[in-house]
Amino acid sequence: MPVSQLKFINYPSPKESRTDKRREANGSNPVLSGWLLVILAKVLHASTFVQKLLWRLNKFDKVKDLPELQGYSARYDPTVIPVGHDEDEPLPLTKLPKPRRRKNESAYYTTADYHEAYTSGTLTPSDVVEFLLPLITRHGKGVSKYAVAYLDVQPEIVRAAARASTERYRAGKPLSMLDGVPVAVKDEVNLKGHKRCLGSKLDFKDKEDSTDWCVRKWEEAGGIIVGTTNMHELGLDTTNNNPVWGTPLNPHNEKYYTGGSSGGSGCTAAQGICPIVLGVDGGGSIRIPSAFCGLYGLKTSQSRVSTYPRVAGTNTVAVCGPMSPNVDDLALAYRIMAQPCPQDPINFMFPESTSRRALDVAEPSKRYIGIDREWVGLSDPEISDMFRAAVRHYTDILGYEIVDISIPLKSENQRAFSLTILAEAMTALTPEKVNQLIHPNQILLDVSGTHATAQDLIASDRLRERAMRHMAWLWERYPGMLVLTPTTPCAGWKIRKPSDVTDGYGASDANMTLRSMEYSCFGNWIGTPAISCPLGYATGNVPVGIMALGEWGAEEQLIRFAQKHEEFLGELGVRRPTAEGNWVDVIAQARK
Q1: For residues 48 and 52, what is the distance between their CA atoms, to the nearest angstrom?
Q2: Domain with 269 in it: what CATH number?
Q3: Residue 305's pLDDT is what?
Q4: Is the bond preceding residue 498 a cis peptide, omega within 30 degrees?
Q5: How far apart are the C-alpha atoms of 187 and 320, rounded to whole Å?
Q6: 436 lies in a domain?
Q7: Mean pLDDT score of the chain
Q8: Among 27, 413, 487, 535, which residue has the least CB neighbours within 10 Å?
Q9: Number of domain units in the chain
Q10: Which top-level group of life is the source organism from (predicted)?
C-alpha cells in the first residue's frame, strides 16, 4: 500500500505556508578551546547578563515575534501514527528478506557473510567475540582506536550470548540472519548489566536495570550486543569530541571528527567491527555520523522506535535508528527493532514492521523528488556538485520527477528546535549536575537552556505546527514525494588542532554545530523519517552523504530509495577506510 493511501492519527491539516521573510542568518559565535573555553564557561555561569546577551545574539528571542505564527496553534508532539491493521501478523524472523553477501573482497562484511560462516561451520559466534573483546575493551588509561568507540563492554555477558548462538547454529536452529552477528548500541539506551552515562561522568542508569525494547528485539533475534558506544556528552553537539571518555577519530581521515552525537557507533561500524550499530537521534545524531563515516543511517518516525527515558529530545522521546555500511542490513535491523512495543501505548499503535503488508509497500504511481534549491544551495560547492550528479542519476536512470518546492522559515525552525531541545535537557539536570559537565556543554546550557520562557516554547511549537501543515500540503500535492538534500552542507568536520581532542577541555564552535545540522534537524523537528545514503568522497577522502526525507510512515519507501541508490555507487559500493589498521577484517582474523 502506498504511503499516500495510509490512514493516520494526528496527521496535520494540509495548509500551504508562505512568507515574504528572507532567510535570516544565525548569530556569530566565537570558536573556543583550551583555557579560553574554561574561562568563558566560568564567566557565563556567573553572569546572567552575558548569558542573555548571547541568547539574543543567537536570535532565540525572535521566534516568538514571528508574525507568520498568527492562526496556528501549538503542536507539542510531532508524532503522526500510521494506522495498523488488526489482521497484520508478524512474519517469522527467518522469513524476512535476507541480506546479500558482500559484493567483493574490498567491501564491508554483511550479516549474510557471518550467517554463511556460522552455517558452514568454518566460524562460530564465540570465535568472533573472542577476537573482538580484546580490541574493544578498555584497559586502564591506554585506550586503542577501537576501544575508544566503546564506553562499556561486559565480556561475560557477551560470551554468554555468543555461546547460546553457537549452540543454536550447531543444532541448525538460528533465530534469524542476525543471530550471532556482533552489534553495538549507543550509550543513550538502557542495556541490562551495563552502565548508562550518556557520555558523561554522571549516572543515568535505569534503576530497574532493564533493556530498552528496540535493543531487546535485536537480542531476541540472536544479535550479540558487544557493548555500548561512545557519544557526545548528553548528545548536545555534532562532533563526538568527548574529554571524559576520549574522542573516536574518523576512520576515513583521522584529522576529522566522526560526527555526533552517535559518533562511537558510526566509528565502530566504519572500522568493520560491527555490521550494524544503533544510534539515537535528537538533532540528527544518526545521520551526521553516517554521512561523516560513509554509512547508511535511518531515522524513523517519531515514536516509531523509541527509548525511555531520555535527557534531550524533541518533545516526546529519543528516536533510535540503525546505521550500517549496506542497505540490506539496515533494513533487517530496522524491521526487527521496529516491532510495536506493548508497554508503550503510543508505539504500540504503529503498524507491525515485519508483516507482509509492511514489506510489500507499493511504489507511488509517480515518483517525485522535491528540492528546495535555496536550501540545497547553502552547501559547499564540492557537496553541491556531488549532489547534482546523484540527482541526474535519479532522473535520467531511475525515472524520478524533480519538483521545485519551498520550505519557509527554515532557519527559524532550526532555532526553535535548538531552544526547545536545550530547554528540555535542563529539565533533567540540577545545577550540581551541570557543573560536572564538560565546559562546552556548560556554556551551551547556560546560554540556550536556561532562558527560554513559556512564550518562547509555545511559539516554537506553533512554528512546528506551521511547518508540519506545510509539509502535509506538499505531500497532498505530490503524493509519495521524497525531499532531497545533502546530509550535511560540508564535507566532514575537521579537527581544528590536535589539542582540541587531547587537552581534556573539549572545543566549542556553535556556528559549525548549526551548520552541520542544517538539513538533519528538520525531520526530527516535524517527526518524519529520513535516510542518509553514502554519496561519495570529497577532497581528503572524507565521506559525504545524501539524505531523503519522507512522509510520516514512509520508512519502507525510504529503504526502497536507498536500494535504488546503490546503483549510483556502482560495483564497488561503500568503500572501506584505506589507512592501515582503520578497518578490521573480523571474519578472516577470527578464523585464525
Answers
A1: 6
A2: 3.90.1300.10
A3: 83
A4: no
A5: 12
A6: no
A7: 92
A8: 27
A9: 1
A10: Eukaryota
